[in-house]
Amino acid sequence: MEVTLAQPRGFCAGVVRAVDIVERSLERYGAPVYVLHEIVHNGHVVRDLESRGAIFVESLEEVPRGAVTIFSAHGVAESVVSEADARGLEVIDATCPLVTKVHNQAQRYRTQGREVIIIGHTGHPEVEGTRGRIDGPVHVLCSVEEVEALEVQNPSGLAYVTQTTLSLDDTTEVVEALKRRFPDIQGPGLKDICYATQNRQNAVRTLADESDVILVVGARNSSNSNRLREVGEQRGVRSYLIQDADDLDPAWFTPDTRIGITAGASAPEVLVQQVLERLKSFGVADVRELEGIREVTTFRLPSALTDNHATG
Fold first, then answer.
1. Is 246 helix (H, G, I), strand (E, B) or coil?
2. β partners of residue 91
3. Which CATH fold would you assign to the domain 2-11+195-289?
4. Cα(257)–Cα(252) distance, rounded to whole angstroms?
5. pLDDT at residue 40 greater than cutoff 50
6. Among 34, 81, 90, 303, which residue's CB has the most CB atoms within a 10 Å radius?
7. CATH class of 98-192
8. Is the model's pLDDT at 272 over the cut of 80?
9. What local confidence, expressed as pLDDT, does residue 312 receive?
10. Which ranges of the chain would DSSP assign to H, the alpha helix?
11. Which residues are marked as active site?
């Protein structure tokens, strides 16, 4: 058996920033610090941070008044910001800057008097956070069928934004359907699609040309990880979403299986390496990495965590 690693894979800049924010908050303020929702969708990352003193909560009511509180990378609704302020919480916002950009776009469209459509998955934390930033009617959809069934107040006064964990490929058909039905609709340019999501999907397409089986390392509740598995399947390659090495099944492989491996944007590289170690016990001898885009994007940390900022 041989293994080919996708490039790029794993952590994106927004996830790196979010995890760094929790780690630095623990260093600066000491344990505990509270995190609203999973900082990113990966149980291994969450458990590691819990072991260092982070406490993950699903409601701000669980946080003591005045405590250091971190908003997850997915972003939060305006009502959550107001609640945190009312409780006197010391908030550090780990929202991915690309998500914040979507919030700003949506609010700008609403200020123009437009009815806003979010292309994304209902119930996803990012979508709910964006929905909660818009003062006015909001529609959430993710399929052409939903576009055709959509009922709006003013067909000539619409705008759309997209969930960042969807790629250009995921949204193109929906955007085209919106533009066919509502020719006056406004929306962001193609350059505003999340670079990391698109890059990882493109890498899986390349990986599929050289693989009999694709393994996607990522959490089951990770939108972008699930999509990577789907991309592999769409290319005609058996593809499995695994959380870690313990999910591997020897029955998936024969002695001459070509195995491709990638990882979702919230999956740490250490999990990929553990999967490789387990595969070596199955008979893998050769591991190589595909040529691909080397991501160099970084995002600035909040001012509260920079070295020259006085500890509160």
1. helix
2. 69
3. Cobalt-precorrin-4 Transmethylase; domain 1 (3.40.1010)
4. 9
5. yes
6. 34
7. alpha beta
8. yes
9. 41
10. 13-29, 43-51, 78-86, 97-111, 125-131, 144-149, 168-181, 195-208, 223-234, 269-282
11. 126
